[in-house]
Design a protein that fits this description.
Layout (H helix, E strand, L loop, with lengths): L1 E5 L12 H5 L2 E9 L2 E2 L2 H15 L6 H12 L4 E9 L16 E8 L5 H6 L1 E10 L14 H7 L7 E8 L4 E4 L3 E6 L2 E5 L9 H12 L4 E4 L3 H6 L2 E6 L3 E8 L2 E2 L4 H15 L4 E6 L5 E3 L1
Parallel strand pairs: 6-7, 6-13, 10-11
Antiparallel strand pairs: 1-5, 2-3, 2-4, 4-5, 7-8, 9-10, 9-12, 12-13, 13-14, 15-16
């Protein structure tokens, strides 16, 4: 299943002059849809708007985007909603056109067939050779320039390796190709500082909030490969997978730990209780959108 809507029309045809295609000039969000609920809507919307502001793209019409998203997910139980905002069309050249109207692309995809064991028992990952370059102007936002991740993902074809970890050009830990990274050392939760590169994931923020709820000390800091080796627990996270414990990094084994399990438990209980509902975004048919 794939449903596509571009600028409010049901179509998958995009002009070849669109700057998202020509230059990667835009942003995207990947959002879980579960049982008719679009999860973490407000957080995704806030990051999208922040990215537009950073790139100088006209702010998204939130009501319009919400209505188009509602139309696309109508009648769907579990799926993935992808929202892409480009600067629009404007001819050849890097110069930003003065009258460009942003392009809205909404796609609805089937839910990925993640093995249940990934969350329950953990996954094996590897450290990639591809390094992330430093660019503070783009750090944190989910822009369309993902060639570093594409190159990193080409490094392995082993179905038992579920993710690749990325270092920056100085050898500091940053993230996974599709996820954010957390370590636990001496009872303290640690995640890499992303002020020079990387994506500040919605689930990364949620994990830090849950750590505060559980009175778990947390630190956003610079981390090296040696910190990875010394960690007592490791996990990765994103909006689709939730939290996956890491049980192997290359040839080094780890165990699923207590802090990882506590965070997974709280995340599951929040989902089961249908908490954090944004009542301002309502389809009028009883469906609510989860923030």
């Amino acid at each position: 299943m794939i449903r596509v809507m571009i600028n409010g029309r049901t179509t998958d045809c995009l002009t070849s002059a669109d700057r998202g295609l020509l230059y990667g000039d835009g942003l995207f969000e990947t959002i879980a849809v579960k049982d008719g609920v679009v999860c973490h809507w407000q957080q995704h919307l806030q990051r999208l708007q922040a990215g537009c502001a950073r790139l100088g793209i006209e702010p998204v019409d939130e009501a319009l985007l919400a209505e188009e998203s509602r139309q696309l997910v109508e009648g769907v139980g579990r799926a993935v909603l992808k929202i892409i905002i480009t600067r629009g069309s404007g001819g050849r050249g890097y110069r930003v056109p003065g009258q460009a109207a942003p392009t809205r692309i909404l796609q609805l995809h089937d839910w990925p067939d993640f093995p249940v064991a990934c969350a329950e028992h953990g996954v094996a990952v590897r450290v990639c050779h591809t390094r992330l370059g430093h660019n503070p102007a783009l750090a944190g936002i989910k822009h369309l320039n993902r060639l570093e991740q594409v190159l990193a993902r080409q490094e392995w074809d082993d179905a038992d390796i579920m993710e690749g970890l990325l270092l920056d050009s100085d050898g500091n830990l940053v993230e996974g190709t599709m996820s954010n990274l957390f370590l636990v050392r001496d009872g303290v939760l640690q995640t890499p500082d992303l002020h020079r590169c990387g994506v500040a994931g919605i689930m990364r923020t949620r994990v830090l909030e849950m750590a505060d709820q559980l009175s778990i000390s947390a630190d956003i800091c610079q981390l090296a490969i040696e910190d990875l080796h010394a960690a007592g627990e490791i996990f990765i996270c994103n909006s689709l997978i939730g939290i996956w414990p890491v049980i192997a990094v290359d040839a080094r084994d780890y165990a699923k730990g207590a802090i990882t399990s506590r965070l997974q438990g709280l995340l599951a209980s929040c989902a089961d209780a249908d908490t954090d509902i944004d009542t301002d975004i309502d389809t009028g048919t009883g469906r609510r959108w989860q923030t």
